[in-house]
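Hi support team,

I'm opening this ticket because the web form for multi-chain structure prediction keeps timing out on my end. I have pasted the exact lines I submitted so you can reproduce it. The total is 408 residues across two entries, so I didn't expect it to be a heavy job. Is there a limit I'm missing, or should I split the entries? Thanks in advance, R.K.
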Amino acid sequence: MAGAALRWRLPPGQRLLFEDFDDGILMFDALVGSTHLLSATSAEALALVVDTPGLTGLEIHRRLLDRLALDEAALPFAAVDELLWQLENLNLLAADAA
Amino acid sequence: MTATLAGLAPGEVRRRMAAEGLALRMQPITVRVRSPIRAFAAQIHALYRDYEVLDPRDYADVDVRMLPVPGVRRFARPQVQFVVDGVTPFEGFPLDHALPMFEWGLNWVFVHRMHEYLVLHSSVVERDGRAVLLPAWPGSGKSTLAASLAVRGWRYLSDEFGVIATDSARVVPFVRPAALKNASIGVMRAFAPDSFIGPLFPGTRKGEVAHFSTPAENVRRGGESVDVAAIVFPDFQAGEAATAEPLASSATFLKLAGNAFNYETVGARAFAAVTAIVRRATSHILRYGDLDDAHRALDAIIAQGKEPRA
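Hello R.K., no limit was hit. The queue was backed up. Here is the completed structure from your submission:
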C-alpha cells in the first residue's frame, strides 16, 4: 500500500483522446503520437484521472469498482496499483506525493 | 481547356526539361522537373502525357532535377542523381534508371513533406462514389490489383498513397503511374494487353520495374475527392481462391494507423481521420490468387458498403 496515497495526474503536456469501438477502446497519446488498444479497466482508470486529476490510488480503485460494477475480489487494489504504474511507465500518467 | 503534355512536341519537352523545366500538375501538388537526359524526357512525355502542363516560371511545390553524376566514373559507370530543391537525398542510380528514381524520389518527397494530409501506404480505387482503400506493404499485390481494376472501369486514384484530407477524412487522388514489379509486369500485360506499360527497368533495387499508365479520365478527375466506403487489405497468395474475411474495427484502426507514413507527425488529426474512416467503411482482408476472382470479391464488398455521406 506504499503508493496508495500518491496522487495521479497526466504528465505535463499530455493529452489523451479516446474512441470506443464495438470491439475495443483506442486511446491516442498526443505527447508521443501513438495509439494504444486499452482494456476497459485501463481506459476507465485513465478517464478518471483525466476527469479528476489528483486522485489517489485508493480513490481510483474505489471509483473503478463502482464504474465497472466489480467487487474487491475481482479487482483488488494491488491490481489497480500495478496498472497505474504500468501507465506511468508508458508516460500516460504521473504520480506525485499527496 | 487545359494544355496537357500530349500537346507538346517531343523536342519541346526535351527543350523545357533541359532549360527552364517542365512543370506538371500532379494533383494535389505541382512538380517542376529538369533534366538534360533525353531518354528520361521521352519517358516522362509518354507516361505523363495526360497531365496538365503549367507555366514553369510559376511556383511549384516540388522542384526536381535529374542530373548525370559528374566525375571520372561517369564514363565507366554513368549515374543519375535526384536533386530536390537543391538537396541530394540519395545515392546515385544507373543513368538509365532515371525514371524509376524520379518516381521513388517523388514518393519520398511526398511522404516527407505533405503533412497537411494523412498519407497511408495504400492503393485507392473508386466506383459509384465509393472509394476502396487497398492498404498494404510491398509484395502484397496492391499495385497489380489496382491497375487491373483501372482497366475494368474502376476509377484509379492512387497506386502508392492513400492521401487523406484530415478535415473531412475523404481520400484525395494522387494519380501517378503504377510501379509494377517483377511477375506483376507479365501478369498485367496478359490481363490488359492494350494498356500502356512503359519500358522495363531490370536490376533496380526492387527487381524489374515497369510503369503502368493510368487511363486519362483518372488524371482529368484528379481534383475530385471521395469518401472511403471499404478498406480491403490485399494478400496475394498464388493459387488461392478469393476469400474476404471481415476485420473488427479496432484491428482495422491499428492496421491502418500502423500502415500510415506520417501518423505520429499528423498527430491528433490523424487519430480523428482514421476514426472517421473506420466508423464509415467496411473492412476485410482479401486473400486471392487470381485477379478476376479478386474483382468479384471486391464487387461483393462494395455492394454491401454503407451509403456514402451526402
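A quick check on our side: Chain A touches chain B through 16 residues (CB under 8 Å). Let us know if the file doesn't open in your viewer.
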